Amino acid sequence: MGQQRHFRKRKILSNCINGKLFTSALTSTVCQCTDFDFMCDYGFEHETAMKSESTECFADFWYNPDSPPEDCTVGQIYTSSTGYRKVVLNMCEGGVDRQQNIIQHQCPLMAPKGLQISIKGNTLAVDPGEDITFIVKQEQGDILKTRYQVDLGDGFKASYVNLSLTDEPIKHRYEKPGVYRVSVKAENVAGHAEAVVYVQVNSPLQALYLEAVPVVVKNKEVNLTAIVQPKNSSLTIFYWWIGDNFQPVLSLENYLVTAFPEVGEVTVTVQASCGNSVVQDTRIVRVFDHIDALPLKFSKDLDAANPDIPEWRQDVGRVVTRLLAKETGIPENSLVTVVRPGLPTTGELYLLPTAQAMKRRRSIPADKRIAAIQQALRGNSVRFFFRGGSWVTVFLADSGSDSRGSRGTTGYWLIAALFVLCLFIAGAFILFKFKRKLPGRTVYAQMHNEKEQEMTSPVNHNEDTQHIIQAEEYIDDDLDSQTLGSSEGNHSGVVLSINSREMHSYLVS
To answer: What is the 3-state secondary structure (H, E, C) of 52-120?
Structure first.
């Protein structure tokens, strides 16, 4: 360790004892330094192949000995290492000096590097009105001559000097929910750097309601809607669990379109996550092979009192189901009324399959139940008293509609439209043909008058005339000549020659 020390101790064969003033160390001599009194400095190491014998140190590929330290400011002096340093606690003096060639440098003006901005507490999601503190840090570069421009994203902008040196915090408060882009730009003569962070300001979720049709048809797509309060549509993530599936379906929208492949009861659970708050709701959906459905509408007085919230629609549906069951005698557990969102207020009445249909696994005609419900609705028998002193009546959405089930009325309207179109085309064709025959009928009348004046025959005149009149019915006005009749035995035949401009009649025996 760079020195020589001499010690003494009692001989083994001696019977004396050491006194109080006895010291074991006699002398200490400092040695001159040699190569073995030095080791490689930070960022340097021996050559790998000769690590046990070599005393030479080389800079690693990642280390630049002449680079200034991070805390170097303009006006200060720093030294670059020669690659060696004396071993710790080594006392040698003189001799070999591996550090004698140390070079001194002036600290240059360095561009800012490693700029960071964060929120105290390491969180990026805050509540509206919450006080937050921004902290700006810089790993490398001059600080005294660097200007920091801060933009907090909501219109607040400021400029600071020596911000990271004094560790001055930036305190702020966001009043409105949203996503804010917070940026800080450090700039000096040597260069600049920028750091950006996005802050989510979310109102904590208070309630979640899963709106789903309680009864659906197997393999038919349905819409599941999650209604959250308050609404943070752009910041809320929804997790959907359907049935016994442990892997949720993630969505950024508050709805999910899906189908249920199996008959039975299916549990649907949805979670809404926004910032640090999470809410959940669950519904049970019953799946059937077939369901008959009737569209419903309500008197206009109900629209004025419709708040368009799920709880209100659910209450109105229960009231309609109870009134229909009482009016028709159908069990209440086989009827389900669903009031749809929006205005005007409409709904859907579902007739669930009977127990017999469930056992046979096929639908049984429900004409009697449908007829009873239609009679009650068309007779304005389903009414309930609403606040404000008004009565609300339930009607069929289409007075001529039957149970739709999984069918619709679009096909019937299409068939009716095609039938009317065919009738129109057939009528136009007949009218066209009739108009073409009208001029010929006038010609036939003129020809008949001329023939009565010119015809002479040695045979029975009345009989020949009858043959001629019968043959006239076959004359076509587009031909030049036609045979009007023929006589049997001794009867005479008549040939009529017709021209488009003049007409002549000849009688031939």
So the answer is: CCCCCEEECCCCCCCCCCCCCCCCCEEEECCCEEECCCCCCCCECCCCCCCEEEECCCCCCEEEEEEEC
Taking the whole predicted model, whether its pTM rises above 0.85 is answered as no
Q: Which letter, b or e, does each residue of 6-42 get, where b requires 16 or more Cβ atoms within 10 Å of its Cβ?
A: eeeeeeeeeeeeeeeeeeeeeeeeebebeeebbbbbe
**Mean pLDDT for the stretch of residues 380-409:** 69
- Joined together, the tokens standing for residue 139 give 């790993």
Give me the sign of the Cα torsion angle 225, 227, 228, 234.
positive
Q: Which tokens is 164 given?
A: 């990271």
CA separation for the pair 332, 60 (Å, rounded): 85
Q: What amino acid occupies position 70?
A: E
pLDDT at 501 over 60: no
Q: Are 35 and 98 in contact (CB under 8 A)?
A: yes
Contact predicate 5/27, CB 8 Å: yes
Tokens of 472: 């006239």
- Alpha-carbon distance of 164 to 112, in angstroms, equals 11
Residues 6+ apart with CB under 8 A from 118: 134, 135, 137, 197
Question: Residue-wise over 405-431: b if at least 16 C-beta within 10 A, else e?
Answer: beeeeeeeeeeeeeeeeeeeeeeeeee
Amino acid letter for position 354: T
Residue ranges of alpha helices (H) inside 273-407 are 301-304, 310-328, 355-360, 367-378
3-state secondary structure of 301: helix
Instruction: Tell me the mean pLDDT in the region 30-50.
Output: 83
> Which DSSP helix (H) or strand (E) runs through 153?
none
The whole-chain average pLDDT of the chain stands at 77
**At residue 121, does pLDDT exceed 50?**
yes
What values do phi and psi take at 508, rounded to 5?
-120, 130
Q: How far is CA 159 from the centre of its chain?
A: 40
Distance CA 319, CA 156 (A): 54
HSE, CB side, 13 Å, CA atoms: give it for residue 231: 5
Confirm if 268 and 283 have CB atoms less than 8 A apart.
yes
DSSP 305: T
Q: Which amino acid is at 501?
A: R
The whole-number pLDDT of residue 323 equals: 92
